[in-house]
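Worked example 2:
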Amino acid sequence: MGNNALHLFKSSAMDKDVKTKKQFWYTLPESSRGVRIEIPKAAKEIFAQKHITCSGHLEYHGLTPGTERDIFQRVQMGMTLTGAEKLQAISSPWAQWISELESRHVAVEGGLSAVLEWDTKRGRDFQNIAYFVCCCDGLPDTEQIPTAQKMEKWISRVDMPAVKFMTDIETVLRDFWNIASNDKLNSGLKKIGSRLAPVEFIFIGVLLFVLRKLSLEERATAITALRQTIREQYKDIRINSSVCKSLWAIVRDLQNNPSKMVSRTNGDTKGKKRKKYDTDDEDDEYRPTPVASLGKSAKTRSRQHKGVFA
């Protein structure tokens, strides 16, 4: 690597050797060793001895969100930001909390990124957690189906998440990990399809939130029922209005009729025609109902815990 160490950043940065074209990472979790190459110790020592001088510091005030993204986009080596990355770039109490959830439950070594087979690239894990939290925040009054545009308004809210709601979400994510990492409970996550679709991750989280008073065994069975049912109904499991409405119906059904958890996993839904996803909906985008406006104390799940959801 030699002097290329100057171009590294210590926070898991990546560097590409100009001669061999190989990619190297400064730090790697155990789960990535053997797949990616870590910077040699000698190169790290060279980097640690270097002094980097920053000539000048600029701050911009009063920029519109579009301008901020444009600046960020220009330093991304010309790579266009994804919807997930745009959402992740928002600064707010809710965005900060969701980033903390991602760090504690997904990005951490051995976390959900390791025990589940799902897409966590380019902010997708942050986006999925945000969508899941938004859906739970609307309960019991609203079954949210948020779009990327509506999600921006929701996550930009200036109010703080309620402590009780934050505790419940933390518990759900811990229980999600406990189920996914337990060979006696994770068949619904490991043996149905080769990969967990983003919309499945979102609504499994919603299901665990709604059924959080049940045992891990009961909720593991409910996860199996949810995934089997939605995959019998649809050929393509995408984030669109039709699939989301169907998943909300399944969640309601399993909540109101717990006995159906077992009957569904035993194949009672066979014979139903599988639908194609809406061709007018974009993949990874939602078609939602309205959400709380910015800065207003709207009636949301974070401020109320009543009825069957309490």
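The first helix runs from residue 41 to 48. Residues 1-12, 268-273, 276-310 have pLDDT under 50 and may be disordered.
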